[in-house]
Structure formats: C-alpha cells, structure tokens
Write a structure and sequence with these properties.
This protein has about 190 residues and is mostly beta strands. It is built from no helices and 14 strands. The strands form four sheets. A five-stranded mixed beta sheet has the order 5-9-8-7-6, with no helix packed on it.
C-alpha cells in the first residue's frame, strides 16, 4: 500500500503507524510485508519497524511465504489493543489470489497474532479498457477502512469474489464489491 495508516491510543497517547514495505528486495527477498512503528512521545521519536506478518514478533499463524501483504488499516482499541487489517496472498503459491488478514497485538505492538478474516480467496479484477480505460487492475485497497469501539473492530474492504456473468462477459469476470466484517476485541 502506498498509503500508511495511523491511529492513537486514546488512553496513553501512543501513536502507531502501519505501512507496507519490501524488505530485502535485492532480487531474492520478500515481495512486501506489513510493518508497524510506535511513538510514545507524540511523534518526536519512533520505534524500529516491527514486521507484523512474519518473524520473531509473530507468535501465531505467521506468513511463511514470500508473497505480498499490502494495504494496511490500523486501529487502536479502547483497551490499547492494536489491530491491523491487510490484504495477504500467503494462501496462493502463485502470489495472485488475495485474502484479508488481521494482525493483533495486546502488548503495545511487541508481539502479534495473525488471523484470517476472509473465508475464501479472491482474484484481482482484470484490466478492461473497454469498460473504463482509467481503472487499473491494481486499484485494490482504495475502499479499505476500519474503525473501533468498545465492542470490536469494524472493517470494509474491496473484494472480487463475486463473478458477474453478462452477454458481454459470457465466461464471467470478478465484480468488485465492498465487504464488511466485525471482529470482536481479543480477550
């Protein structure tokens, strides 16, 4: 994601930013992962980036592939729980089909647990210049957003699993929809 996501812990003022980056991408590295940094002094200084999808900080369901993780949406709950939703391709060996995952931390971002949000993977929509020449096949994530309250986290995302069949698309094509999911606070 070219767009970072930011939120503040309303209890202690800690600021968190999630972003996608390509670690070690010198021809043999990972495609992209999700990282979080934290500031405890209003943004004057920042922690080292923590990879929330793989590595030592992930204590459950880490991504063991080199596939893409992108478009993070970060929220901090009223109890200080940090949640990052993101697109993830770990379930497709070809690094094409997408799922939505959640990384959650209950200790200020030091450790993370990954959870799959979607029940099935979906494809990126095809580029179709006859439909709209300005729409690119990589628009994914433009409609991703989230919020949180005392009951849980709420997420919307663009999802292409529905197939549209019409005379013009006899074999069908992915038809982007905006999806919604509520996820309870981790207790």
């Amino acid at each position: 994601n070219e767009f970072p996501s930011i939120d503040v812990d309303r209890d202690n003022g800690d600021v968190y930013i999630a972003f996608a980056a390509e670690p070690g991408r010198q021809g043999r590295g990972d495609a992209s992962d999700i990282f979080v940094v934290r500031s405890t002094d209003g943004g004057s200084s920042w922690s080292e980036p923590v990879n929330v999808v793989k590595g030592q900080a992930v204590t459950q369901d880490a991504d063991e592939t080199r596939n893409d993780n992108f478009m993070p949406v970060l929220n901090v709950g009223p109890d200080g729980q940090v949640s990052v939703f993101f697109y993830d391709r770990r379930n497709d060996p070809e690094n094409r089909k997408i799922d939505v995952y959640r990384a959650v931390s209950t200790d200020g971002g030091r450790t993370w647990v990954n959870q799959r949000v979607t029940a099935e993977s979906f494809d990126v929509p095809p580029l179709n210049p006859n439909f709209d020449p300005l729409v690119k096949g990589c628009y994914m994530g433009d409609y991703n957003d989230g919020t949180v309250d005392e009951d849980g986290f709420y997420l919307t995302w663009g999802d292409n699993r529905r197939i549209l069949k019409a005379p013009r698309f006899s074999r069908g094509r992915p038809d982007p929809d905006v999806r919604f999911r509520a996820v309870g606070l981790k207790r």
